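Let's study a protein:

===
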Amino acid sequence: MTRSLHVGLTGGIGSGKSTVAGMLVDRGAALIDTDAISRQLTAPGGAAIPAVTATFGAEMIDASGALDRARMRALVFSDPSQRQRLEAILHPMIGAETLRQTEAAGTRPIVFDVPLLAESAHWRDRVDRVLVVDCSEATQVERVMARSGWSRDTVLAVIAQQASREQRRAIADAVILNEGLTLDQLRAEVATVWARWTDPT
C-alpha cells in the first residue's frame, strides 16, 4: 500500500501556523500536533511529569500537578543545557505518540505541526513536503502580545530561540506569507497549496 502524503507544517510563534493547520484539517488532512502532544505529556497526570519532577525538582510542577511552563521557560532560556535535559525527557515520548497517531490516521494525508521543524534534521527526512507559514517579526510580536499577554521582551526571547525566517524558508516547499491577509484570503492560499500537492491531475 502506498504511504499517504506526509506534510511538515512549521512557522515562528505568532505566524498563524495553528490557523493554517485547522484549514488543512478542513480539507481532509489528519493533524498531528507535536506541541499539543507535549502539553498533554506535561499536563496534570501527564506521562512526563514524574521524570520532569525527578530531573528538575518539585518546584517545576505547579499546584495543579502540571509543568510550570512559565518557570520552565525562564530556566531553559537562561541555560541551554537545561533545554537539552527537558528535550531528552519529552522528545522520545513525543516521538512514540506521533508514531501511534500516524498509524491511526490510515490513508489520509497527514500534516505534522512541528514548531521546531527547521531545527530538527530528522523531521525534514520524515516528510514529503514542508509548508512554512511566515510573517514579519513585528507582526509576530504584535500577535503574541495580544494573544498571550506576554511582554515584548518575552516574545522576542522566544523568537530568538527559534530558527530564523530565512532558515525556515530555506527548507520550504511552499511558503504562505500570512501578513495582512483576511481569513478568507489565507484560506484561499492554503487551498492553492493543498490542491497542488494532493490533486493527481
Observations:
- The mean pLDDT is 93.
- The beta strands are 6-11, 30-33, 110-113, 129-134, 174-177.
